Amino acid sequence: MRLQIKGMSCMSCVGRVEKALAAVPGVNAVSVNLASETASVSGDQLSAVALAQAVQQAGYQLELTEQQLAVVGMSCASCVGRVEKALAALPEVLSVSVNLATEQAQLTLISAVDDAALAAVLQKAGYQAQFPLSATASGDAAAADTAQGQRKPFWQQDSWPVLGSAVLTLPLVLPMLALLFTPWLGAKAAEQWMLPPFWQFVLATPVQFYFGARFYRAAWGALKAKTGNMDLLVSIGTSAAYFLSLYLWWDSYSGWGLTQSGHQAHGMVMPHLYFESSAAVLTLVLLGKYLEHRAKKHTTDALRALANLQPAQAMVWQAGADAQDNWVVMAAGAVKKGDLVLVKPGDRVPVDGVVESGSSHVDEALISGESVPLGKNAGSKVTGGSVNLDGVLQIRATAVGAESTLSRIISMVEQAQGAKAPVQALVDKVSAVFVPAVVLIALVTLLGFGWLAGDWVQGILNAVAVLVIACPCALGLATPAAIMAGTGTAARFGILIKNAVALEQAKAITLVVFDKTGTLTAGKPVVQQLQAFACTEAEAALWAASLQQHSEHPLARAVLEHSRQQQLQLLPVTQVQVVAGRGIRGEVAGRSLLMGSGGWLTELGLSLPLELIAVEGASVSWLAQQQGEHYQLLALYCFVDQAKAEAKAAVAALQHQGVTVAMLTGDSQASARYTAAQLGITEFSAEMLPGDKAKVVQQYQQRGELVAMVGDGINDAPALAQADLGIAMATGTEVAVSAAAITLMRGDPGLVSAALEISRQSYRKIQQNLFWAFIFNSLGIPLAALGYLSPVIAGAAMASSSLLVVSNALLLQRWRPKTLPQQVQEAL
User: Fold this and answer.
1) Using CA atoms, how far apart are residues 785 and 441, in angstroms rounded to an integer?
2) Which of 730, 756, 782 is the last residue of a domain?
3) Which of 97, 123, 473, 688 could tie 692 with a disulfide, CB 3.0–4.6 Å?
């Protein structure tokens, strides 16, 4: 096994890693290479978990890889457990998660595994593997399958088993249908419509062994793996009904009866045969699986829609052979970072980039959920997959391939849809013992009616009904179908939920903490007051802008914008030092300058003339210079950052849901108080350092609140990680986005209440689905065992339960973010 080790720096590291790995049980030999940062491990019965723990305890990290594959042949929750157990047995696999709804397996590996090895393991367990799998590839594959499906002969279509078995089964069940119309057709209609035994046998046999062959193949795979699944229950149940009919026919009728139309044959009474039960059950199960498959495809509609946003081609500026520049059409995947791309009206933008020339309006609705087209000019950022509406744009590519926003969105949604919610652990435990328990109940039912009541035929029929109705299909689909529909729907409105755990966390949130700057406010403060003390305002503006010229802080950008308006020529700055949460210092034209918060300058011994602050609710920075061991105050800056237009409604929406809203900021108390009053927030903390925000979140948690933190900056990352649920604005920094469990694709704080709402709705669907799945089995199995459900009714109920669960989950696709009640809007 070849492991990639992170964190080694010298030969002593090599020795530590070798010693740690050699101590793992089963390891026979270890060789660590510092240059390639790899470790080669060989041994017997190696464990990925043990190896990863050994490396971690030694102070290093393993480079993990993620792999996805499609698993063909799963039918129920028991199959999920079987596939996970088979894949987890591989020594390279650290963790595995299998999703029945998507029919995919997600593997976390400590070392690469050959596709053939994975396929062999799955084949031994009774399933097949398909490679490769990616969001884009799956979207393309879906389109290709649709196109091929239209060209396939009818006997290769997905609908063929259902149609074929239905055609053969219909004549068998006509007598049952006649019983429903006895008042009109007469009591003997059912007998008159019943086919002779031979023709029942001819019609039922292809249904049993041709159209039902998939159940026997999967059941045999389960038996070889010494486990059980839905296919085993169906095959045992229908085979029992089929062979019971053969036995009754042989026992009661000595001739073949090719011409008999009734029950009399050679003076003997022909008992009722149950060919129609086995055929009808198989047809209903096939129909249920077909409808379920079609319904499951709808749960991935959002993912396929995102995958289809990527255009196939792009027009790129290249130097031609004749030394003249030309626009060349190439595959979008071949575009490189830095290329200049031409996008015409009506075309999709092929890459993330910055507009170099041209102006237009761009529709980003399917990516960010923003319904209003956005104006784009030179310098504007554009996102791949958005639609250029009315102008010609020349775009410099900044992110392509897997680095693009669209690819990262698809990856995030795909990861969330493949994940398991914590509640799924209960389902997995139940599924592990479900099939053996059902077989035991069916056996008890058979013996009970056979020995105690002396009616073996009825015992067999009741046992068949137990086996058929108890198939755990709905149980396996309950959770993943709801997660897929919920996360896909959320993505359409610009809400990216990273994992299923976030759904459970979001449903119980009691307090939402907002960062102020860039989250509740526009994040673009402007200078409202400049007051100079020991210099002129022009000198203060020049020195402050020169000091801040390399800073990305919002207040620094405001200072620079103020200097540009005055057309100042900035001076060089050296020895720049950023003091986290306080300000900045550096050397400008021989002066040792510093600029930052009032708290910082007070700590340095300066007395601040706070009475000179003339702007209500302003963020305040002070400019000073160091002279030896003393400091001299040079100027006062007041900035105003207006609250976002949507912020007040966003706060009101959360409060309307019964969620408390608080605000944290590094700004002054006056600025925080002003913004909080504007937005109707009563709890706020100001002058926060990055670590302070995390401590405040922890204090809220200690008083019993389940906290969601909303932020967009690097300084918000500790608080986002500390919170029960981290929500980041994608308009902010990458650090904040990676620390959060939910990402909002546009800077609208109103999406926070929408994210909590869709999470609650999704979790509610999970609970509803699990309730229906359990109630079907809890009520159905006893009724079937006591003889109140025939095998045909049991088969219909089983097929309906799976369809009900998936259809209930699909209702989430109708979800739309709620608007506030009219009286609340009027109050705002």
Assistant:
1) 8
2) 756
3) 688
Q: Say if residue 660 is in the same domain as residue 594.
A: no
Which of 45, 62, 79 is the last residue before a domain boundary?
62
Higher pLDDT, 369 or 698: 698
Place of tokens 């897997």: 402
504 and 648, same domain (yes or no)? yes
Lowest average pLDDT, out of 156-160, 280-284, 380-384, goes to: 156-160
pLDDT score for 138: 43
Whole-angstrom distance, CA of residue 348 vs CA of residue 370: 16
Q: How many CA atoms lie within 13 A of 107 on its CB side?
A: 27
Choose among 495, 485, 494, 490: nearest CA to 369: 494
175/195 Cα distance (integer angstroms): 9
For residues 297 and 748, the model is more confident at 748
**Do 647 and 515 share a domain, yes or no?**
yes
325 part of the active site: no
Q: Which of 428, 515, 641, 712 is catalytic?
A: 515
* pTM score over 0.70: no
**Nearest-angstrom CA–CA distance, 329 and 320:** 13
Residue 634: give its domain's CATH number. Answer: 3.40.1110.10
Q: In the prediction, which pLDDT does 592 show?
A: 93
pLDDT tens-digit readout, 10-68: 777 788 888 888 888 888 888 887 776 788 888 888 888 888 888 888 888 888 888 88
pLDDT tens digit sequence for 109-141: 888 888 888 888 888 888 888 875 443 444 444
Give the domain CATH number at 122: 3.30.70.100
Closest C-alpha to 463, from 152, 681, 241 = 241
